[in-house]
Amino acid sequence: MTNIEPKGTKLKFVNLKSHLKEYFQKNDFTFFCDDITQIAADEKFNKVVYMTNNTLERNLRFEDSRYPEYLFLISNVNKLTSLTNRANNLIKEVRNVEYNPYLFLLKIRQLFQVILYKDFGSENWMDNWIMDRCYVIKIEDELLYYTIYDFPTLLEKLPDWISVKQTKVKDGNKIGYKMIIKFNV
């Protein structure tokens, strides 16, 4: 057996479902938008969404200045919808905006990459990759393992395993939309 661990590092086995569930409970992905029609107005994506978690919004905007808008659109469904299906539906919904047709799936994968392999909720999330985690998930009675070396495969499969929806929340006089994820496997 070959040791794939970096010198001095012990692998930590992490239940993928539990980890992501806890992550989305701990980090507030609540979006506010005064006028939803302005997100994709004038044939471009506009910065009109804001979040209650300033650190998270700043980190998202660092990754891509329109990330909160993309995530708001992705989660803007009332019924649980697979992330892959939602991304494909969005391509049809915002067809007046010129962009790569794979944009939403790419953004979903990028989001989970930084959530799983960086400390994205903190101020210093971009410093280092988290090298010591091995994510475990059970699919159809089979345990699957994903280390840092397998992350492209995990990110390719994850949008098919997860569904998304929103739930309305009140913050004072404002109505926000909290992103909810659930595993469908």
Question: Which SSEs are present, and which pair or pack?
Answer:
Elements: E1 12-15, H1 16-26, E2 30-33, E3 49-51, H2 54-63, H3 67-75, E4 81-82, H4 83-93, H5 103-117, E5 133-139, E6 142-146, H6 151-161, E7 162-171, E8 174-183
Parallel strand pairs: 1-5
Antiparallel strand pairs: 2-3, 2-8, 4-7, 5-6, 7-8
Which descriptors would you attach to this protein?
185 residues; alpha+beta; five-stranded antiparallel sheet; 6 helices; 24% strand
Note down, in words, how this protein is organized.
- The model has no long low-confidence stretch (mean pLDDT 89).
- This protein is of the alpha+beta class and 185 residues long.
- A hairpin with a 2-residue loop joins strand 7 (162-171) and strand 8 (174-183).
- The longest helix is centred in the middle third of the chain and has 15 residues, at 103-117.
- It is 36% helix and 24% strand.
- The protein has helices at 16-26, 54-63, 67-75, 83-93, 103-117, 151-161; strands spanning 12-15, 30-33, 49-51, 81-82, 133-139, 142-146, 162-171, 174-183.
